[in-house]
Amino acid sequence: MSMIQTMDVDVGEPLSLHQRILSDISERILSGAWAPGHRIPFEHELTAEYKCSRMTVNKALSQLAKAGLIERRRRSGSFVRRPQSQAAVLEIHDIRIEVEALGLPYHYERVARHKRRSGAEDRTLLELDSNGPVLALECRHFAGKRPFAHEQRLINLAAVAEAANEEFFAVAPGPWLIARVPWSAAEHRIRAVAADRHIAAALDIEAGAACLVVERRTWSAEHPVTHVRFTYAAESHTLVARFTPSQG
Amino acid sequence: MSMIQTMDVDVGEPLSLHQRILSDISERILSGAWAPGHRIPFEHELTAEYKCSRMTVNKALSQLAKAGLIERRRRSGSFVRRPQSQAAVLEIHDIRIEVEALGLPYHYERVARHKRRSGAEDRTLLELDSNGPVLALECRHFAGKRPFAHEQRLINLAAVAEAANEEFFAVAPGPWLIARVPWSAAEHRIRAVAADRHIAAALDIEAGAACLVVERRTWSAEHPVTHVRFTYAAESHTLVARFTPSQG
DNA sequence: GCCGCGGTTATGTATATACATATTGAAACG
DNA sequence: CGTTTCAATATGTATATACATAACCGCGGC
């Protein structure tokens, strides 16, 4: 089929006009040429500069505003905002995908499963206020033959009754839940810990070795759904987060 | 003239039409009513449903596409995307602010400062290709009397020449850079490590103890600016990230 | 001087229209 | 039968226009 690839000399992609306006302006802001507080040209001035309609300029400026680079004030104009708090997009993938991205065969193992009324600790982790039933799961995720991650999970059966009938032998609770429960909010906590004996055995490492712990609490429509704690051996995992101030 | 206002009783905020379309659709996607792969109505169908122009529908759908909820294909229509990798907004504050948020007095100490031509390791860390000059810094951040974080930093002097004249006795390199260099991209790596002797001494912990390492690389307009590695004792720090799916 | 009123201004939203572009499916052709 | 061509279709981008809305400004009346 078509070997007709862009063999043209022109390397830059053909940006649409509003994209060009947008990137022109964001460049000037990010380079510092237009400092925070600076009033950027009015729409009608940009209209003249780029010889285009106001709608086109407006599209670009609206996107800059949504991205947080500028602030728009009626009657006054648009102004460069001061740099907002640093934030990064932290990507947390499904473990299977992480493992497979490493080129290793993925394998999942359910270690334990208990259904019980929630105790004090469960209620703290899930932020429950009643002692409703929960499902406690312990699993291991393997990369090749080595344990890659240890998973301790609580599922709020009041929110996901269906889970009570699932053994989780074949399917890991993460993908199972994602497929069933639309989540609306999540909270992550990331820290380093020394492996206790239980974790050390599960991950086949020395007790006291450094581990990365990622805890996630998930809500769906105000109801706590699940709390999960993943523990990774120090060598096996690095979280990567990238951030570029959005260009719209 | 026209006092003809909608003097309706309705208390809810007056959403603009394209916002209403957008939130209607994203609600159906997030609730699971429209599963991944589902084809959402064509623009002309929504035009009929909402009795508005195609531009208005287009605005809503474009934003949904940019937010990653749907994928648009010419001639085929728009489709619900399968939930992309979970992403969370990871807040990474200035260490002074972190410490002060704990109610502890903050104190900063510069341990070492070396100006040198970049070696192989420096070039790897900064992603430099020439052996230009760099400034290597080592610092400690205290919460009260205890070391809170250890900082190892490289600054690319080709990008920030001004840094060569700064001793960093009084001001930490982080705030100093933020005040001067507009950064345009950053990359974070988060992992757990066992403290080596050097780190153990700096943080006043046992060698081999678990530590959380946050490394950040920063670019400004394509130029590498700095690489920094923060090391926290396991007990002293937890990163927290929250996520709520955006409604556009 | 102070207050209110209306006019001016810049942005916010929406419309109808036009043409470009990618993609698909079917017709035409060798 | 396979390949090429073409038209239909949905989205992508841009325009000119219109009116709404918020904020500011100055003018005039008290």
TrEMBL record, chains A, B:
UniProt keyword rRNA-binding present: no
Protein's UniProt keywords contain Transcription regulation: yes
A UniProt-annotated Pfam family: GntR
Keywords: DNA-binding, Transcription, Transcription regulation
PROSITE patterns assigned: HTH_GNTR
Name of the featured protein: Histidine utilization repressor
Signal peptide: none
HTH gntR-type domain segment(s): 15-83
